[in-house]
Amino acid sequence: MNQPSIYQRTIIRHQIQSTALSAERKLWVYLPPGYNELLSYPVVYCQDGLEFLNFGRIATHTNKLILEEDMEPPIIVGLEVDLKRRSAEYSPDGERYDLYRRFVTEEALPWVESQFPVRRTPEERILAGDSLGGTVSLHLALDYPELFRKVLSLSGAYRYSTLDRLEAEEDLSRLDLHMIVGLQETAVSTQWGDIDFITLNRKAKSLLEAKGATLHYKEADGKHVWGFWQNHLPDALRYFLG
């Protein structure tokens, strides 16, 4: 049986010629049911944007939460990733990280705000990411406190450059995070070797709490895959928008 038309997704695709990255990058913009350009909406910026849409089913989850649970409707922006350069752009010590953060803050965000009625305060912008996408989301919030304060982290890859950065911060009470990590993520194969995501996320949680951040932290049965993260996206969306 086909879904009722009210559950159909509205997604606009746009392509930006990025000066910062010297490349074109796609953006996918989800508009909620009942979208009205005269209203204003909180906005979710997703790293690995196409993956959040296709594998995370974030648009489908959001539609259902809005229509069935009366969740506040957001606009969702999926940012394209260059998989060959993902680590270089998403790692805070990567050689293209500075270029990527310029793309997000100086090109993608201004374009979205010029085209759609998104709210423009750091409390109304949410950064979302999985693995290294969670890492770059947290670092963007650390680097640009005037822009971002909310982070949705799916098994964030919080390696020692991130933990050292958190240790060096004095006050992170401005931050609000939703963190989820899988109990089976104790030896995830990465380009840096096998990583124990559980231990790294626990260390990040302790540092964030010690510095005054607000966070909802959860460990659950699951591996480092979208099949796990997809199931926990509704709770994360409810946390920020419910």
From TrEMBL:
Taxonomic path: Bacteria, Bacillati, Bacillota, Bacilli, Bacillales
UniProt keyword Hydrolase present: yes
Keywords carried by this UniProt record: Hydrolase
The keyword ATP-binding is annotated on this UniProt entry: no
Annotated Pfam families: Esterase
Species this chain originates from: Paenibacillus aurantius
Gene3D superfamilies: alpha/beta hydrolase (3.40.50.1820)
A GO molecular-function annotation: hydrolase activity
SUPFAM superfamilies: alpha/beta-Hydrolases
InterPro entries according to UniProt: AB_hydrolase_fold, Esterase-like, Mycobacterial_A85_antigen
Alphabetical list of PANTHER family matching this protein: ENTEROCHELIN ESTERASE-RELATED, IRON(III) ENTEROBACTIN ESTERASE
Protein name, as recorded: Alpha/beta hydrolase-fold protein
